[in-house]
Structures are given as C-alpha cells and as structure tokens.
C-alpha cells in the first residue's frame, strides 16, 4: 500500500482530491457538517474494528508478508512498463490536452486539403 501511495500519479491524485475536499468543506457549511459526521463515523468504526482484526492479522502475518513481497515486485515491473505512473496528474492532463489538440488540428488540415 505504501509503495502504491508513493507513486507520483497516485500521490498527486490524492493531493488533488484532498484539496478539493478541504475546499468544499470550507466553502459549504452544510456539506461540512455532513463530512464531519461521516469522518467521526469512520473513525469510530475504525477504532472498534482494529481490536477485533488484530488477532487475525497476527495469524495471517506470514501470508501477508509473502503477498506484500509479490505485490512489490509486480509494482516495480509495472512502474518500469508504465512510466506514466511517475508523472503527476496535472502533467498527464496537460499532455493529453496537447495531444488531442494536435490530432484535431491534423484532422482539420487533412479534411481541408
């Protein structure tokens, strides 16, 4: 999970969502009250669940470690194959807009001639 969270694409997307969430809460008092209630609910459920889940996690720890190692190797390969994962969202959006604009301009030129 940490390795995925540290991918530039994922971390920049999380930052964008977090900023939008905070801005929305700040701008809209009714949304803020709903979000605050939801956050408290999630926190309570998380705290209540943590003590119940801990014995299961302890039992499964060797299996989780093996799965984590396997997933880590897969993510390394994926990162090599898809360099896009190392770019921030805003750069990907900008590059995509430029590519689409260029293709549309090429299509217009082709139709004109």
TrEMBL record:
Key words, A-Z: Lipid droplet
GO BP: any one term: positive regulation of triglyceride storage
Gene: PLIN3_1
InterPro entries: Perilipin
Protein name, as recorded: Perilipin-3
GO annotation, cellular component aspect: cytosol; lipid droplet
Protein location: Lipid droplet
UniProt family annotation: Belongs to the perilipin family.
